[in-house]
Amino acid sequence: NLFTVTNHLLDQAKILESPNSSERPKGVKPNLLVIHNISLPPGEFGGGYVEDFFLNKLDPSIHPYFETIIDLKVSSHLLIDRKGTLTQFVNFSKKAWHAGVSEFEGKKECNDFSIGIELEGTDTKPYSEEQYSSLVGVTKSLMENYSGISKHRIVGHKDIAPGRKTDPGESFDWSRYKDSLG
After folding, report:
1. Of these residues, 118, 129, 130, 170, which one is catalytic?
2. How far apart are CA 166 and CA 154, in angstroms?
3. 84, 138 in Cβ contact below 8 A?
4. In this predicted structure, what is the pLDDT of residue 104?
5. Nearest 5 degrees, angle CA 169-CA 160-CA 93?
6. Rounded to an integer, what distance in angstroms lies between the CA atom of residue 179 and that of residue 40?
7. Do strands 5-6 and 9-10 pair parallel, antiparallel, or not at all (unpaired)?
8. Is the whole-model pTM more than 0.85?
9. Does the active-site annotation cover 105?
């Protein structure tokens, strides 16, 4: 496997520690993987604004949309940009604040027991080859390191927050992704 985890950090990722995290409940290990998408400003890629957002350093004067999200405290464990580059914001042993109000198989507060991966993208634009490649490699590594995560415990944000969220959207090829996991 191209991707390895040491002390709950992905060795191949750039590490930027987000303050938007907390401890998981005692004894809880991650057993769900949640796939998201994000672009800031919406529909635009590559500006570094997602990183700033997760670090609470977003400058609201840069774009009117930023003024509407400046007070949100959000993070994911990982971001995979359009080039497939990985940035980790939260140690996998900790809770990232990615899912919001959510429920999976009758259990609420999915942040407590999940790992969140953000793909730089939108619901409608196709994801890049590099993103799929990185996502598949990272997913295989997470399944090796966290036995509770399996192919059947990988969902989109829309699956745990229906009616509130739509990501990763119709542009995400679930069949391709899941088939690549073996």
Report:
1. 118
2. 15
3. no
4. 98
5. 105
6. 30
7. antiparallel
8. yes
9. no
Peptide bond into 168 cis (omega under 30): yes
- How long is the chain? 182
Q: What is the 3-state secondary structure (H, E, C) of the chain?
A: CCCCEECCEECCCEECCCCCEEECCCCCCCCEEEEEEECCCCCCCCCCHHHHHHCCCCCCCCCHHHHHHCCCCCCCCEEECCCCCEEECCCCCEEECCCCCCEECCEECHHHHEEEEEEECCCCCCCCHHHHHHHHHHHHHHHHHCCCCCHHHEEEHHHHCCCCCCCCCCCCCHHHHHHHCC
Residues 15-71 have pLDDT tens digits of 999 999 999 999 999 999 999 999 999 999 999 999 999 999 999 999 999 999 999
User: Mean pLDDT across the stretch 142-149?
Assistant: 97
How far apart, in whole angstroms, are the C-alpha atoms of residue 179 and residue 182?
Answer: 6
Distance CA 106, CA 29 (A): 17
Contacts of 139 (CB under 8 A, 6+ apart): 33, 154, 177, 181
* Angle CA 5–21–41, to nearest 5: 95
Using alpha carbons, select from 19, 69, 47, 143 the residue that is nearest to residue 117: 143
The overall average pLDDT reported for the chain is: 97
Burial class (CB in 10 A: 0-12, 13-18, 19+), 107: middle
